[in-house]
Amino acid sequence: MDRILLDGGLIITMDPERRMIEDGAVLMEGDAIVAVGKSEDITSEFQWKKRMDTSGHVLLPGFVETHIHLSEHIVRSLIPDDDREWLPNWLIPIYAALTPEDEYYATLLAAMEMIKTGTTTFCEAGTCFHLDHVAEAVQSAGLRGILGRWTWDLPPGPEQMKRSTEEALLSNEALMDLVRRLDVDRIQA
């Protein structure tokens, strides 16, 4: 596989020493990092096919989003800031109305925004319904993530969201089965 050298930037590591390497280099092969260090050391020791000048830039490890609601990206600014009953008045009805296509595109939008900001991994807070469509969007974006589904066994709420305890637990089993069928290390439940 062809190697790519990111060369000349300030590298901020998350290694045990928390090193910051000025005039650093990162050598990549496919989706793996082969070497990280001073540019002079990496360029004298390794071969590469393509070089990208990162002088004047900072290279950071990918960020991790620890709490995200993938489906809410398409409804931003819809919920009034001054409504104290925003969950039952706005969010629950929105979630109840989401179609598989809505969740697919909302997830793609969330993925694009995460990628743009350097986020490579996320944990969905458990608010998805159409997990096969969400997983498809995550796979196409190439992110790593933990998927969660909306699960409750409380009687009130829109009809689509009502579940018995057994149905709620079975829906989570179905999510875990879906993730196993995907057979990719990047997506978990």
Short structural description:
The chain is α/β, with parallel strands linked by helices and 189 residues long.
* Helix share bin: 25-40%
| CATH homology-level superfamily of the largest domain | Metal-dependent hydrolases
Q: Helix/strand-derived class? A: alpha/beta
Radius of gyration from the alpha-carbon trace, in angstroms: 21 Å
Largest pleated sheet = 5 strands, mixed
Number of helices: 5
What would CATH call the class of the largest domain?
Alpha Beta
What would the CATH topology of the largest domain be?
TIM Barrel
CATH architecture level-2 label of the largest domain: Alpha-Beta Barrel
Strand percentage lies at: 25-35%
Name the helix and strand elements from N-terminus to C-terminus, one letter apiece. EEEHEEEHHEHEHE
The span between the termini is 31 Å
Number of domains: 2
Which descriptor suits the 3D outline?
elongated
Total number of strands: 9
Runs with pLDDT <50, length 5+? none
Would you tell me the overall average pLDDT? 92
How would you explain this protein's 3D organization?
The two termini are 31 Å apart. Helix 3 runs parallel beside helix 4 (131-141). It is elongated and about 65 Å long. Helix content is 34%, strand content 26%. It has two domains: 3-59, Urease, subunit C, domain 1, CATH 2.30.40.10; 63-188, Metal-dependent hydrolases (TIM Barrel, Alpha-Beta Barrel). The protein is of the alpha/beta class and 189 residues long.
Task: Please specify the SSE layout and strand pairing.
Elements: E1 3-12, E2 20-29, E3 32-38, H1 39-45, E4 50-53, E5 58-59, E6 63-68, H2 86-97, H3 100-116, E7 119-124, H4 131-141, E8 144-146, H5 165-182, E9 187-188
Parallel strand pairs: 1-4, 1-5, 6-7, 7-8, 8-9
Antiparallel strand pairs: 1-2, 2-3
Helix pairs in contact: 3-4
